[in-house]
Write a structure and sequence with these properties.
The chain is α/β, with parallel strands linked by helices. It has eight helices and eleven strands. Strands 3, 4, 5, 6, 7, 8, 9, 10 and 11 form a nine-stranded mixed β-sheet that branches. Strand 5, helix 6 and strand 6 form a beta-alpha-beta unit. The longest helix is centred in the N-terminal third of the chain and has 18 residues, at 2-19.
Length: 261
């Protein structure tokens, strides 16, 4: 209940700031979507008994301790918390096996003012693998620029036990496309490609494409997995409506549900 009271106070303050024009909600539901994905991660940590407020280092050195909110959590557990306990049964065994060693870890959002890839010359900009890895180490997810085609957000994925020489060979992405209109974009996950000229995230690792219709009232969750894609195995998710049918974790907090929907 203490966590509920703190969260409600935070959401009330946020609601007031939005109403007074201090905070911009975005053109396509960016703020609601940011709250959805980030609070799901934080609530999972706080509602899971294996986690505590502070994680002590193995050698009990207090300077090496870390906040629970900055721990990496399994992609399997994260999506099971977000979409419900049967999510991976629906996605299929191959999908679960593909992401069994995958983790997310983000505690804030970083906004971009240009496309992920702005030049066809790789010498002119940071490698997208290095770009993803830097956000992983910063525990940040990315809010893409308004001009970015296909996607609105990127959440880094790290494959902890994946064989590779460096961390660069272990990073992948969750790409999210937001839509706040009252018309369906059900086919959008199929249109998200991570090797698009303005994205250029080339990798053979499994990745995720999510399209969310925030403005619809009827709950829908479609999931499909293909492991024969040219850009690597891809889990594609379509979700419609912000409610506790689409996102069952919202049932854990009725105040949260009422304030972001």
């Amino acid at each position: 209940m203490h966590m509920e009271r703190i969260l409600d106070m935070f959401l009330r303050t946020l609601e007031h700031k939005i109403g007074s024009g201090v905070i911009d909600v975005g053109k396509s539901g960016e703020l609601a979507s940011q709250l959805l994905w980030l609070l799901a991660k934080d609530l999972y940590v706080h509602y899971t008994p294996d986690y505590s407020t502070v994680v002590q280092a193995a050698d009990e050195n207090p300077w090496k301790s870390e906040l629970a909110d900055c721990q990496m959590i399994s992609v399997l557990d994260y999506f099971r918390f977000v979409f419900g306990p049967h999510f991976w049964d629906i996605a299929g065994k191959e999908a679960g096996d593909a992401f069994k060693d995958a983790f997310v870890n983000f505690s804030d959002w970083v906004a971009m003012d240009e496309n992920i890839s702005v030049s066809k010359n790789p010498d002119d900009q940071l490698n997208t693998g290095e770009w993803t890895l830097r956000h992983w180490h910063r525990t940040s997810a990315v809010q893409c620029s308004h001009n970015q085609p296909l996607v609105d957000k990127m959440i880094p994925i790290y494959f902890k036990d994946y064989p590779g020489d460096t961390d660069l060979s272990r990073v992948s992405q969750i790409f999210v496309s937001d839509n706040a209109q009252r018309s369906s974009n059900r086919g959008d996950p199929d249109n998200i490609i991570h090797d698009h000229d303005t994205i250029q995230c080339h990798s053979s690792l499994p990745w995720v494409a999510i399209s969310v219709d925030l403005g619809l009232q009827e709950s829908v969750v479609d999931v499909k997995f293909a492991d024969d894609q040219p850009g690597g195995p891809c889990l594609r998710i379509y979700a419609a409506a912000i409610n506790d049918k689409t996102f069952p974790f919202l049932e854990e907090s009725k105040r949260l549900h009422s304030r972001i929907s």
